[in-house]
Design goal:
Layout: E1 2-6, E2 16-17, E3 26-27, H1 34-46, E4 47-48, H2 52-63, E5 67-71, E6 81-85, H3 91-103, E7 108-111, H4 113-117, H5 120-125, E8 128-131, H6 134-138, E9 154-156, H7 171-175, E10 181-182, E11 190-193, E12 196-197, H8 209-213, E13 218-219, H9 222-236, E14 240-243, H10 252-265, E15 270-275, H11 282-291, E16 293-301, H12 305-310, H13 318-330, E17 334-341, H14 348-361, E18 365-370, H15 378-383, H16 409-424, H17 427-448
Parallel strand pairs: 1-5, 1-6, 6-7, 7-8, 8-9, 11-14, 14-15, 15-16, 16-17, 17-18
Antiparallel strand pairs: 2-3, 4-10, 12-13
Helix pairs in contact: 9-10, 10-11, 14-16
Length: 449
């Protein structure tokens, strides 16, 4: 059986990622001023990787002996089955391709978190929707009987296998089409990887990660994880690994065990993780550094306690966040701190306070995005009658898509430009950035000698 994973995207001048934002995807349209446009261009040219759940599906299908291909375009080759990764940021484009395939009488399945939470548009276009984690559905499954499917339907699949039981992710299939990259982490290919899934934090009120992964933490054994990293290092020359766990260091012992196993390998990986500052202390940060962590994403969201509390955001104190980022950066790990404009009780004054706070945090990178009530989350139920767009591809995280109590669409757009301009032209940030770049150059020279 020949299977194509067809991962389609609209044509834009900014990067679109289906993997981030819990698999709903983001579109990095940072704004319209000079700084925002430069950042938009940099990110589009330096970062590109497919949705990890589709790579896991490729691995499961390969393990069953099927001929699997991956493409971002519909080619002329005939396939027995077309699998489309879903997203909110490419939704209308995905529907267009499904209709085209169905007009050719092709068998189409749609996978991923967005289709799991919002299956109806895909069903109406004629696709079969696999709900739940798709690799769990395809694990050791004989698909011959699926060829009889010619009408749209939902396949409910919420069976959960142990993460250690899953097949090796099918990165070889992706590399035949293009080489994923994360140049902010290092030169050469980069791949995404999981050490755990699931997140128990209360910010699931607006966060989409638990919609497919659930609230319960599920861990991959350090041995299984290290075998994956070593395999792709030897097979595909991968040294850059982006951990896509919702909160990488949520289980301290598990995290330390992973760090120790990586340190034993002595392969000098470049690693990016996303975590919560509440889960990092000086000792753990030191182990992360030794294991090769070069970049840490942390969500700070807002400097205002009342804004965070209203959005059910779990946070450390502002001073602790400043101190921890300073310690992490001083030891040579870059931090990308992420902030949100337009949370439900946000105002112009409160968000400007957040920008000023971000300048005190002084991380190497800062990201300012727009609060977005996503279909499937609890907050969407409160805001569904306030949504101001009828196009899902506008849910980019960088534009206002609902009627805000205190901010207009123009207000949010102006604040977005204000945040990037004032952060990245701040003299203290420029000096800090130069210091960090100098430290990296020195460390690279030292490691070569």
């Amino acid at each position: 059986m020949k299977i194509l994973i067809l991962d389609v995207y609209p044509k834009t001048n900014y990067r679109i990622s289906k993997d981030q934002n819990g698999g709903y995807g983001t579109a990095n349209n940072y704004g319209k001023n000079f700084i925002s446009r430069v950042l938009k261009l940099l990110v589009k040219n330096l970062v590109d990787f497919p949705p990890l759940y589709s790579v896991y599906v490729a691995g499961e299908l390969m393990n069953m002996g099927y001929e699997v291909s991956y493409s971002k375009e519909l080619n002329k080759t005939e396939y027995d089955l077309y699998i489309l990764p879903s997203s909110i940021v490419c939704h209308e484009t995905e529907i267009e391709f499904i209709k085209k395939l169905k007009s050719m009488n092709k068998l189409v399945m749609v996978i991923g978190p967005f289709a799991t939470s919002n299956p109806n548009p895909y069903l109406e276009a004629g696709a079969t929707v696999i709900r739940g984690e798709p690799e769990m559905y395809f694990h050791k499954r004989n698909l011959v009987d699926e060829l009889s499917i010619n009408t749209s339907k939902i396949i409910e699949n919420f069976k959960i296998y142990n993460l250690d039981d899953l097949s090796m992710p099918g990165w070889e299939v992706i590399f035949k089409n293009y080489i994923p990259s994360m140049k902010f982490l290092g030169s050469g290919p980069a791949i995404n990887i999981h050490a755990s899934r699931g997140c128990p934090y209360s910010c699931s009120y607006y966060c989409v990660y638990p919609l497919q992964q659930g609230n319960k933490l599920r861990r991959k054994s350090p041995e299984k994880l290290i075998n994956e990293m070593k395999y792709f290092y030897e097979k595909l020359n991968v040294k850059n690994f982006i951990f896509r766990d919702p909160v990488f260091s949520i289980d301290r012992k598990h995290t330390l065990d992973i760090c120790n196993e990586i340190i034993k390998l002595n392969l000098k990986f470049n690693i990016c993780i996303e975590t919560h500052l509440k889960n990092i202390d000086n000792e753990l940060a030191s182990f992360l550094k030794k294991a090769g962590v070069k970049l840490i994403y942390v969500g700070i969201e807002s400097a205002n306690d009342d804004v965070r509390k209203d959005a059910k955001r779990t946070s450390d104190t502002n001073q602790n966040q400043i101190d921890k980022v300073k310690f992490i950066e001083n030891m040579g790990i870059k931090v990308k701190a992420m902030y949100i404009i337009g949370m439900p009780t946000d105002t112009k004054e409160k968000f400007i306070n957040t920008v000023n706070f971000a300048k005190k945090v002084k991380s190497t990178y800062a990201q300012f995005s727009v609060f977005t009530p996503y279909p499937g989350t609890p907050v969407f139920k409160e805001y569904k009658d306030k949504i101001t767009t009828n196009k899902f591809e506008n849910f980019t995280q960088w534009q206002l898509v609902f009627k805000h109590s205190n901010l207009s669409k123009a207000d949010v757009s102006n604040l977005l430009d204000y945040s990037y301009k004032h952060y990245y032209t701040n003299p203290k940030w420029i000096l800090h950035f130069i210091k960090m770049k100098t430290k990296v150059i020195y460390e690279n020279l030292f490691n070569r000698s």
